[in-house]
Task: structure prediction
Amino acid sequence: MTPIELETRRRVTGLTSSEFARLFVTIERKIDGESAQWDASDVESWEIVGPPVTADQHIIDTLAAANEFVATLAQRLHRMITPADEDTVVTAFADDITFWADQPDLGGIPHALWNIAALQAVEWVRQETGVVCTIDTRPSIV
Result:
């Protein structure tokens, strides 16, 4: 994977370098038998010089998992808010800690992925019915 391909794919998922690194470590706990210990500075460096060859497939798998998660969650949220009316509210999150406190089964998954799925679900409702749902951002607990 080239540096520009990695950066573009990461940005398309809506993740910061830090969120991507955290997601990567959450999904790919081991790389060649060793614990994955990467952070934002590693991702930023990969976007300049390219990722290590040993991580290439793992990065592709992580990006695919992020996209699959968003698609599945958007469908779930869409089912939950349908039928929708003008009073329908969908929750978004300002940070990971607040998100994980509200959705403990999703610990380690960046809140940005939830927010993207929420936006997608709201957009589907708008396209299908013309109803514009409200997105309410949960205040940070920290």
In short: DSSP finds six helices and four strands in the chain.
